[in-house]
Model the fold of this input.
Amino acid sequence: MRKKNREVTDFSEKVEIMRHCDVCRLALNDESGYPYILPLNFGLRVDGETVTLIFHSATEGTKLDLIAKDPRASFEMDCKHRLEYNEEKGYCTMNYESVIGHGTIHMLSEEEKLAALEDIMRQYHPENISFNHAAIPRTAVYVLTVEDMTGKRKESKIKE
Done:
């Protein structure tokens, strides 16, 4: 990381940044030689120092084909965007928080899906996790076990 003063090194702070995000961009390996990037809703599990990201989708499609061929993936998520502009000085920057990393994806069994889908719901609706369970059999649910991640924060220079 070029600007070490922006690095977030504390594990719990990185997890907190992740909890504030509403999209996780997943990069899969494509046989064309280019990454295949998807913006996805996600859930989050933390067990000690292990972070697991949870995703869902239809039961077939390009992303599932790519995961079956190569389960390695990278991810990125960001939040707290705020444009900072000082017209007088001609200064413009963007404040943000982000986490990037990589890991390995595996598909969940039918028995594991309900708890994982509840984790996704908790990311967006912590107060209410009810949903129609009839969709579970026609939903693919998969998890990325994070092997490495880094956090970054660009905070405002303007005092409020």
Observations:
- The mean pLDDT is 92.
